């Protein structure tokens, strides 16, 4: 199953309708893209599912629940600002198109904007995600195929400036989950081809721009 994986930079060819082909069955987005762009991609690919995590330049999507087709926040109906029909995987484990995807959005906190976390805050969120994935695996024997994040692990393709440092906690998260892939954005390559990293058996890829990736879902992970 092939997925179109995007992050941070709008690809003008895709906006023009030059899509990757009908074989693509899923859109994965690692943050900081216009939500109407994500909606356009899924529509142009025939309504395929879209799973995303928010980046530090995206609006705050926390606190929303859905009841009877209405989005609620703080007990009141409110329009959801996220992309229509897409699945927000931030802090969640979701099963889509045969893949088990765990999501952890946001960047290291560097100002008062949304979707920014201190190292300690993201570590707490990551521990909750690990526990959620472990419960799911105990129930059905399936582990996580893809860990979808906005920021990279600390020291693995990140930068030294405060806004683009990676998260320390992702090292332990990968160790516990052992996903096939960690896909992240946030680090703009500025015309260079960023190299793919390995953390144990996990492939770590910067997906800024657009990438086509073929996934092999695992029915049972031990």
Keywords:
222 residues, alpha/beta, 16 strands, 28% strand, globular, Metallophosphoesterase, Calcineurin-like_PHP, Metallo-depent_PP-like
In short:
The chain has 222 residues and is of the alpha/beta class. Helix content is 20%, strand content 28%.
For the largest beta-sheet, the strand count, sense and barrel status come to: 6 strands, mixed
**Cα-atom Rg, whole angstroms?**
16 Å
Helix segment tally:
4
How much is the average pLDDT?
A: 90
Binned, the helix content reads: 10-25%
Order of helices and strands: EHEHEEEEEEEEEHEHEEEE
E-strand count: 16
User: How would you classify the helix and strand content by structural class?
Assistant: alpha/beta
Strand fraction equals: 25-35%
Q: Main sheet: which strands, in order across?
A: 8-9-12-13-15-14
Give the end-to-end Cα distance, rounded to a whole number of Å.
22 Å
Shape from CA axes?
globular
Uncertain runs? none
Textual characterization of the structure:
Pfam families: Metallophos. This is Metallophosphoesterase. With 222 residues, the chain is an alpha/beta fold. The chain has 4 helices and 16 strands. The strands form 4 sheets. Strands 8-9-12-13-15-14 form a 6-stranded mixed β-sheet. It has a 5-stranded mixed β-sheet with strand order 7-3-2-1-16, with helices on one face. α4 links the parallel β12 and β13. α3 (119-140) packs parallel to α4 (169-177). The protein is globular and about 40 Å long. The mean pLDDT is 90.
